[in-house]
Amino acid sequence: MHDFDHFRFHQLQAGVTEATVEELRVAYPQARHPIVRTHPETGGEMLYVNPVFGRYIEQVEGVPMQQELSDAALEYLYQQASHPEYCFNYVYS
After folding, report:
1. Nearest to residue 31, comparing CAs of 58, 64, 11?
2. What's the helix, strand, coil split of the chain in %, to 5?
3. What is the pLDDT of residues 21-57, one digit of tens each?
């Protein structure tokens, strides 16, 4: 589950009104997406995780995941994603 709460918190800190932040929350609610994605050109699998927006893993292969296990799994994935040799950087041209 992906959430923009961190971003909205900083908007409030920057002086954006609560009404505007609430409008953005409604316009951009939590997003559900798979953690393992398939690269469109190579067909290779890759992880799609982000410590700023990632909140929890809802389920694995249809089985609900407990919060403690989700937290531990995400922390491990975030640590792995910090290694440059595991990162994919897309260069826009």
Report:
1. 58
2. 40, 15, 45
3. 899 889 888 888 888 889 888 898 888 888 888 889 9
Q: Apex CA 60: angle with CA 59 and CA 65, to 5°?
A: 45
Tell me the two tokens of residue 54.
Answer: 């990632």
Quick: pLDDT tens for 47-87: 888 888 888 999 888 899 999 999 999 999 988 888 888 77
70-76 contacts at long range (C-beta below 8 A, 24 or more positions apart): 74/49
Q: State phi, psi for 47 to the nearest 5 degrees.
A: -90, 140
Distance in angstroms (rounded) separating the CA atoms of residues 33 and 21: 23
Task: Count CA within 13 A, CB hemisphere, residue 32.
Answer: 4
